[in-house]
């Protein structure tokens, strides 16, 4: 192309179409050989094309065609499609633009972090078979979606949407034409109002959906479901498949004469595991039978795609969003008492010390002899048999407890991490109103089922490794060196030594927990041990399970509610030639991608469950404003203290500016704040008395007032802190004078003790 004196619009558009890699003004000018004053003309053309929406600005001096993504650019991943694939769009200055782009894996390093819903990533973008694909170069910090889930409030001059998330900083003003019928008190989803060009002033929004009303007792879960994009409606094809489900033909052993029983929470709707044991001359024979979901949910079917998309069931205080339709999860696949059910089972032989000698997997047909709750089974063992539990006490329950006693010996020798953390349950009446909150009692029956399930999961991993089969492991990595160093530094502040050069071992953590149990530092050290741990994830690469102290571990026992278990079932069927419905080659090649996805869906469910619980607790305490509570400090930050209230376990926040007129300093190593001068402290784990000042049920927030005086300065740290204070330095974090004005309470994040993963 020859030199051009005055480039026109069409010349620029033709060049951009033929040269999509030219994204900056400099590259466009160089390609068109535009120089001198002609650059002003080019600049004006680019500006006009941007204002008209033909081009989208992607950087300070970079553009892309608005109808197609740039070859390299930032992509925000917004949702999963019907096949469970992660979908996003290119990011421009005015928002998302261009066609949908499917995530196709990392670019370069095969172990690079994978993005999830809400993430932005710098990607290489290419077109293949009329589809745009993105390969991530760098995944950025997760950002909030452009939309807001919140409460619509109608005022005299219009409406606004107040966000339900404590992390969300924006509110949308809603003009009359954009409220779509929303009334004061409605819970809504709102999106930014499109504008032709960047504007200043308040954020304008459009209501896109009304999801409920703030007075609905079920509103807490509704908000969490929509805020985290948890699918609730099954596609008609999946429902039809569930209604017409017929198990795949496969060879099955007859287990109907073995009195397998289910032991679950009293209100469980699905029963995916059953157990049975008998005593041998030199040990125990144990059978763990699991619902054969793979026989009903075939690879690539509508049901399978929806199950993968959801990844797992999500359990709220008042409802369940299941991974599978209720026709399967609560009926055809559920191991109902007295009904024949297809199952995958593992038969395990243990010696008297609880060491496993052999095991074998099989597909069978079983008939549950009883549906017992944990409480019923435990009461029978404790000498108060009743109903079915009484009938089966000698023949079924006592052998189960005998086998568990042997397994418990091996478990104690193995020494898994022993963090006995309290759990609470919210009780609802028939109308959905909260009746109360009770502590979940940890019974021996719970530990029995847990240990049998762990052994079955280990057996699954061992068999698949032996058969050199691909599988998805459940891994829990070692604590990082940085976390162990911080943990050791904390222990040093309470005069406990911890060797940081050694490989972390669970029995050492357990010894520490036993030594401090019942003492002044019990809760404090327990929380710090929890914080030092990594999160459990799914992976096609085996790193072992540190918390359980196991070298090989895979989830096998809950395919009704976890897609990971369904993958393991299919892998066993294929490896052991137990039928035609085993793991296919295509999915076997996608295990890394599947593992990343189901880890993401598990985290999504945990966040939603936690948010809903916090809201319900806030609703329960809404009429207790002004009341005083005992509590325990569970989080210490430079901004204030997180306190868990006794009884309910609800978390509230005490802003540092409200404690006193002292100058408070954060000692991050000791996990406490202290008053400059006096040295008096509030520390992690400390029992305090607080007053409830404010409740925000929409965000699930509690604002507290500290009533307890700080503790005297610790002898070992008083002198060192006095020296630091004299020099005008603080040991870690930041300190400062009291902040004035109302604290921005709804922006506080959760304390770390609530960020934990299930085993």
Q: Can you walk through the features of this model?
A:
The chain is about 30% helix and about 30% strand. It has 18 helices and 34 strands. Strands 3-4-5-7-6 form a five-stranded mixed barrel. A five-stranded mixed barrel has the order 8-9-10-12-11. The model is unreliable at about 730-750 and about 750-759 (pLDDT under 50).
Q: Which strand order do you get reading across the main beta sheet?
A: 3-4-5-7-6
Into which percent range does the helicity of residues fall?
25-40%
Arithmetic mean pLDDT: 87
For the largest beta-sheet, the strand count, sense and barrel status come to:
5 strands, mixed, barrel
Number of helices: 18
| Count of domain modules | 6
Termini gap: 64 Å
- In percent terms, what proportion of residues is strand? 25-35%
C-alpha-based Rg, rounded: 29 Å
| Sheet/helix structural class | alpha+beta
Mass-distribution shape? globular
The total count of strands amounts to 34
Low-confidence stretches: 732-750, 752-758
Quick gist of this model?
By secondary structure, the chain is of the alpha+beta class. 29% of the residues lie in helices and 28% in strands.
Layout of strands and helices, then pairs:
Layout: H1 9-18, H2 25-32, H3 38-51, E1 55-59, E2 62-65, E3 72-80, E4 86-92, E5 95-106, E6 120-128, E7 131-139, E8 148-155, E9 158-163, E10 172-174, E11 186-192, E12 204-213, H4 219-227, H5 236-243, E13 253-254, E14 261-264, E15 273-280, E16 283-291, H6 302-310, E17 314-315, E18 320-321, H7 326-332, E19 340-351, E20 356-367, E21 370-373, H8 374-381, H9 387-391, H10 393-414, E22 424-428, E23 434-439, H11 444-466, E24 473-475, H12 481-493, H13 506-516, H14 522-531, E25 537-539, H15 563-575, H16 585-589, H17 591-621, E26 628-636, E27 640-645, E28 651-655, E29 664-667, E30 672-675, E31 681-683, E32 687-696, E33 701-706, H18 715-727, E34 735-736
Parallel strand pairs: 5-7, 10-12, 13-20, 14-21
Antiparallel strand pairs: 1-2, 3-4, 3-6, 4-5, 6-7, 8-9, 8-11, 9-10, 11-12, 15-16, 16-19, 17-18, 19-20, 22-23, 24-25, 26-27, 26-32, 27-28, 29-30, 29-34, 30-31, 32-33
Helix pairs in contact: 4-17, 5-6, 11-15, 12-14
